[in-house]
Write a structure and sequence with these properties.
Layout (H helix, E strand, L loop, with lengths): L5 E2 L7 E4 L2 H8 L1 H8 L3 H13 L14 E2 L7 E4 L4 E7 L19 E9 L3
Parallel strand pairs: 2-6
Antiparallel strand pairs: 1-2, 3-4, 4-5, 5-6
Helix pairs in contact: 1-2, 2-3
């Protein structure tokens, strides 16, 4: 995890890193976002900013569009973007903060890594 440098704005609680440098450029540079996602680039950037502004992942866990476990994955989470597209990310902690039952302790997740944008075919 954390293959790319962390991009964080002043005052942000959750630190964001990107697994894919093209996704980082699409987030940081308006023109690159438009090239990659068209008019939907604003929503892509807004979702990441919403995650970044939260004090921890538990703060957005109740928002259905922002933090849902990705079925049949190894700890991947998703945020709804547009149509059937989702932003896929993981907690970027080693070891992962866990609750006694072994599930992710979202209150202690303050770093995430953006993996990809994918279309839900299910």
């Amino acid at each position: 995890m954390g293959a790319w440098r962390v991009y964080s704005t002043r005052g942000a609680a959750i630190q964001i890193s990107f697994r894919d440098s093209a996704l980082e450029r699409a987030y940081r540079a308006r023109q690159e976002g438009l090239r990659r996602f068209g008019d939907s680039s604003r929503l892509f950037q807004r979702r990441i900013k919403q995650l970044e502004a939260a004090p921890n992942l538990a703060a957005v866990a109740g928002w259905p569009t922002l933090c849902q476990p990705l079925p049949n994955s190894d700890g991947h989470l998703s945020a709804q973007l547009w149509d059937a597209h989702r932003l896929i990310f993981v907690a970027d902690h080693q070891p992962l903060p866990q609750l006694p039952d072994g599930s992710l302790d979202r209150r202690r997740v303050t770093r995430i890594e953006i993996w990809t944008v994918e279309e839900d075919h299910g």
